[in-house]
Amino acid sequence: MNTMIKHHPDDNLLTEFSAGTLAFGQSIAVSAHLHYCSRCRARVASLNTLGADLLQHGEPEAVSDSLLASVMDQLDQSPTPAPAPKAPAPAQKPRVLEKILSASGPEKWEFLTPSLHMARLKTGQQEFEVSLHRIKAGGSVAEHDHKGTEITLVLEGSFSDEAGIYNEGDFLLREAGQVHRPLASRDAPCICLSVVAAPVKMTGTFARLLNPFLSFRPQ
Questions:
Q1: How many structural domains comprise the chain?
Q2: Is 62 among the domain residues?
Q3: Is 29 within 8 Å of 97 (Cβ atoms)?
Q4: Within a 10 A sphere around the Cβ of 49, how many other Cβ atoms?
């Protein structure tokens, strides 16, 4: 397990991912997080086992909140968690991203600011914009809010904001009203996977003038 990972999808997201009911755009981010995180791979493996047992015993109805909480409590307390698939070599990209890029071709980086470039990913769905963001070493992203849910997964390097420091594999979910200003570490660029349900909303004095021009283009 990568012990640097401090931020994970919550149990509701993992349960929806295991059940196959999580939106495809968000499932990409969860699947990519599992590439790095043995803890969450073990939790998903246990949820898959629970789902298979329920189907085998003829109980396809939704899992109750109390049953789910009981399962998660057992996972937290168990000294020997359910076996998880072996972690891939650290140098590899998450498999889900390799599949997307092999189907659509290499990343096409767009200039946004001197510190920030973006590459939109073609995922065949229209609910979320899925993209890669590259922040240069020591560079920052303008302060912004979110008009909808934003998931960020750190793929390479690290960044910080007002709430903390985020390293490779960390999974962050932001909602409307959660303003932040990401800053990449000084020693290396930071590359993140971003899954957003709506355009960001710039909040800085001058940056907010860009809001009418910010696009939202799921592909």
A1: 1
A2: no
A3: no
A4: 13
61 in a structural domain: no
* Phi-psi category of residue 155: left, alpha or beta, with phi > 0 → left and psi -120 to 50 → alpha: alpha
Cβ atoms 96, 193 nearer than 8 A: no
CATH of the domain at 39: 2.60.120.10
102 lies in some domain: yes
C-beta separation of 136 from 188 below 8 A: no
Task: Give the least confident one: 58-62, 95-99, 138-142, 191-195.
Answer: 58-62
Task: State the residue for tokens 């981010």.
Answer: 29
Assigned token pair, 197: 């349900």
The continuous run of DSSP H or E covering 27 comes out as: helix 24-36
Using one digit for the tens of pLDDT, what is the confidence trace for 2-34? 668 999 999 999 999 999 999 999 999 999 999
Residue 21: which domain range? 1-55+91-218
pLDDT interval class at 73 (50, 70, 90): low
| Residue 114 in tokens | 């001197």
Instruction: Say which DSSP state 180 is in.
Output: B
| CB of 189 closer than 8 Å to CB of 156 | yes
Is 85 within a domain? no
| Residue 100 φ/ψ region, left for φ over 0, alpha for ψ in the -120 to 50 degree band, beta for the rest | alpha
